[in-house]
Amino acid sequence: MISIQRGLALFASMTTLTGCAVLGTTIDPGELGLKYIILDEPGLQSKVYSEGFYFQWAWNDMISYDVTWQSRSERVDTLTADDLHVPINASVTFRARPTELHAVHTRIGPMYYEDVIQPVFSTLVRSAFANYNHNDLARKSPEIENFVLARLRENLSDKPLDIDQVSIKHIVFDPNVTRSISTKLVKQQESEQKRYELDIAKEDAEIARTAAKGRGDAERIEAEGQAQAIITLGDAQAQAQAAIAKTLTKSYLQYKAFDGDATTYYFVPTGKDALPVIVNAEPRR
After folding, report:
1. Sign of the torsion angle spanned by Cα atoms 223, 224, 226, 227
2. Contact 64/27 with Cβ under 8 angstroms?
3. C-alpha distances out from residue 8 to 26, 59, 100, 259, Å
4. Cα(47)–Cα(36) distance, rounded to whole angstroms?
5. How many CB atoms lie within 10 A of CB 150?
């Protein structure tokens, strides 16, 4: 508390003696300052002052610069590769390089955006859009942004400035071309829908044909199986009959005729010509 009171008293005394010739300068957050001393050589000091309040004589000056990232937008009238006029809105993010603030002020000055960045930026945007057709602009915007950013950094590489980003904010497309593109897209979508429906119909027909062929093959296989079974059964029966026929000899049949207790035998004598012999054909009286 005592030191603060002494400081205030000293400041009041100096102000009284110099006729209010002592002033104060405030450097705000995000800014850096360079002091200009009029009675010194050189007048502009190389020391960089950070944010804070600084006392100085009234005839001296403190020059401050905003060293935060800033963004500026520009409306640029461009001409595409297919000769269509397309106004666009593009922005660039930049700052004065904090470590080279003295060079910024001595080589360029406070109007560094207007004097250095803006002209190059607008020219590069025009040249970039001239490489693309109207219908490709929306799809190629990231590519255009990267191109402009790289070329802008290259053109300003010898300046104490930093370029962070380039953005294509808005593209004003030609309404007639946009309408034609919309109509074309609608027709394409309708054509694709019809083609899709036709493909579905073809797939359904192919499925039906495959199913019918499968049923036909199954029925054919079943019929072939049944026919083969009948043939096999017939062959078995024929083989069985052939086997039986081999065993049914005359002697075997005669044997079976006499075989058994309940068999009744009738003897019919036959002659040499195998006709029955009639012993007595006279009827009885």
Report:
1. positive
2. yes
3. 18, 22, 36, 159
4. 10
5. 13
Q: Which residues of 192-221 are buried (b: 16+ CB within 10 A; e: fewer)?
A: eeeeeeeeeeeeeeeeeeeeeeeeeeeeee
> Mean pLDDT for the chain?
81
Residues of 68-78 as b/e, b for ≥16 C-beta within 10 angstroms?
Answer: eeeeeeeebeb
Strands of the sheet containing 70-79, edge to edge, are 70-79, 85-96, 161-171
Residues in Cβ contact with 159 at an 8 Å cutoff, skipping those fewer than 6 apart: 107, 108, 112, 116
Residues whose CB falls within 8 Å of the CB of residue 265, separated by 6 or more in sequence, listed in order:
258
Burial of 135 (0-12, 13-18, 19+ CB in 10 A): middle
Locus of tokens 């054919």: 220
Residue 89: other Cβ atoms inside 10 A: 14
Q: Give tens-digit pLDDT for 195-238.
A: 888 888 888 888 888 888 888 888 888 888 888 888 888 888 88
Phi-psi category of 88—alpha, beta or left, where left has phi over 0 and alpha has psi -120 to 50?
beta
Query: Residue 70: how many CA atoms within 13 Å on its side-chain side?
Result: 15
DSSP string, 111-128: THIIIIIHHHHHHHHHHH
Confidence of residue 77 (pLDDT cuts 50, 70, 90): very high
Render 156-187 in DSSP notation, one character per residue.
Answer: TTTSSEEEEEEEEEEE---HHHHHHHHHHHHH
Those residues whose C-beta lies under 8 Å from the C-beta of residue 79, and which sit 6 or more positions away, are 85, 86, 126, 129, 130
CA quadruple 14, 16, 20, 21: dihedral sign: negative
Q: Which of 80, 88, 81 is nearest to 121 (CA)?
A: 88
Is residue 22 scored above 80 in pLDDT? no
Residue 278 has pLDDT above 70, yes or no: no
Which of the given ranges, 40-54, 243-257, 261-275, has the highest pLDDT on average?
40-54
